[in-house]
Design goal:
alpha+beta; 484 residues; 9 strands; two-stranded antiparallel ribbon; globular; five-stranded mixed beta sheet; Cytochrome p450
Length: 484
């Protein structure tokens, strides 16, 4: 029995090695680090992948092969190749690689994020661009965003003026996370799960538990996702995923039913759940697709804005002159007798540049979600076989010294000197992606980041904790900023 297992395992390994050699002989693949049998480069990849791949690109070039087990992953790291992937060869690279967990969560791509490019994707994308993220709808929901940012300022003020808190650092992440949580649940579900005192209600606790459980389930399969023959050791827990899906659907349907009853009594709102239910027949949307789209918005919007603003504030505190210039502009344009609104953005060019520079240096998704080749294609003169997984290292693209002057310096003024689009038209700056799969909610994200940043700078002066100079701030540990 033991000998049979050894022979079977050896046969599988030999077959994989032979197949890999065949692919290398048939195709001119991009260069890359030496791959080991079976595991490929998995044991060489450092935990922060986008930094690791950026380092490797210095050795192997801006397009390189990285093997996740037997799967070929192609990573591009400059704007020229990003344009080739996301625009010139976009149609051949518009499919989505789905792990087993992503396939389960998305009902095999019945949402938008994980759908392959085809009729379903085109339909739901149309719903997003023509119905959900239009300027009219975003304007109608502006009061929600401004209400949550104002609540953040009030909470910060209350906490930093408490006598026993006056000399303690505040963990800014907590306040930013509350804004992101309340904002996305109100936009998507039309519900605020958190009271003004910060207490989360029963539905909110269930919502957070579902999010946490989804992350746990997804992380449990990491290694087996890349090495197929290991999957018998890490089987997909069908029952656990089924229970998770049922739990998610149960909460979502309960909220959908509440909105259906409200619409029947004339209480329809502009929130996304109302919009999708109203548009269900017009676009022939299944219930799975509606639920998938709502959770796409939550997944894409809950943490990204908070992370972006936290990085932005860390950079502002490290660069006191930037803080002074932004506050001077806010005091001059908005004044001290009212609060900033989104209508002020057009008169606050420096604030917009600060937000843009933060998104350049610290994009919320440093490695773009994986694309998959649906045909053999060439990138940078190299062959990319059908089925290969293609990644754009957005973090590396935005720090390329070939196209950015002093790329490691936080310098918002660069965008006063040259206006650079960041919604997918200029491939030097791609915080929201580009091409067929560009984020449809890019403008919503920009508005919220700019609003949160503006309010934090307009209402408070920020310094590091006592004993730390701005230049000594460790950007690997950005928490505990002190208000003075």
């Amino acid at each position: 029995m033991g000998q049979a297992v050894i022979i079977a395992a050896s046969s599988i390994i030999c077959a994989l090695v032979l197949y890999k050699v065949y692919r290398r002989l048939r195709f001119k693949l991009p260069p890359g680090p030496r791959a080991w049998p079976v595991v490929g480069n998995l044991y060489d990849i450092e935990p922060v992948r986008f930094r690791c791949f950026a380092e490797w690109a210095r050795t192997y070039g801006p397009v390189m092969s990285v093997w996740f087990g037997p799967s070929l992953n192609v990573v591009v790291s400059n704007s020229e190749l990003a344009k080739e992937v996301l625009k010139e060869k976009d149609q051949s690279l518009a499919d989505r690689h789905r792990s087993r967990s992503a396939a389960k969560f998305s009902r095999d791509g019945q949402d938008l994020i994980w759908a392959d490019y085809g009729p379903h994707y085109v339909k739901v994308r149309k719903v997003c661009t023509l119905e959900l993220f239009t300027p009219k709808r975003l304007e109608s929901l502006r009061a929600v965003r401004e209400d949550e940012v104002t609540a953040m300022v009030q909470a910060l003020f209350n906490d930093c003026t408490k006598p026993d808190e006056s000399q303690k650092g505040l963990v800014l992440r907590k306040y930013l996370g509350a804004v992101a949580f309340n904002n996305i649940t109100r936009l998507a579900f039309g519900k605020r799960f958190m009271s003004d005192e910060g207490v989360i209600d029963e539905q909110g606790l269930e919502f957070k538990a579902i999010v946490a459980n989804g992350l746990k389930l997804g992380a449990s399969l990491a290694m087996a996702e890349h090495i197929p023959w290991l999957r018998w050791m890490f089987p997909l827990e069908e029952e656990a995923f089924a229970k998770h899906g049922a739990r998610r659907d149960r909460l979502t349907r309960a909220i959908m039913d509440e909105h259906t009853r409200a619409r029947q009594t004339g209480g329809a709102k502009q929130h996304f759940v109302d919009a999708l239910l109203t548009l269900q027949q017009k676009y022939d949307l299944s219930e799975d697709t509606i639920i998938g789209l709502l959770w796409d918005m939550i997944t894409a919007g809950m943490d990204t804005t908070a992370i972006s603003v936290e990085w932005a504030m860390a950079e502002v505190i490290r660069n006191p002159r930037t803080q002074e210039k932004a506050q001077e502009e806010l005091d001059r344009v908005v004044g001290l007798d009212r609060v900033m609104t989104e209508n002020d953005f057009s008169n606050l060019p420096y604030l917009q540049c600060v937000a843009k520079e933060a998104l350049r240096m610290h994009p919320p998704t440093p490695m773009m979600l994986p694309h998959k080749a649906n045909a053999n294609v060439k990138i940078g003169g190299y062959d990319i076989p059908k089925g290969s997984i293609v990644h754009v290292n957005v973090w590396a693209v935005a720090r390329d010294p070939e196209v950015w002057k002093e790329p490691l310096e936080f310098r918002p003024e660069r965008f006063m000197e040259e206006d650079v689009d960041m919604k997918g038209h200029d491939f030097r700056l791609l915080p929201f992606g580009a091409g067929r799969r560009v984020c449809p909610g890019a403008q919503l994200g920009i508005n919220l980041v700019t609003s949160m940043l503006g309010h934090l700078l307009h209402h408070f002066r920020w310094t590091p904790q006592e004993g730390i100079k701005p230049s000594e701030i460790d950007m690997g540990r950005i928490r505990g900023w002190l208000l003075t």
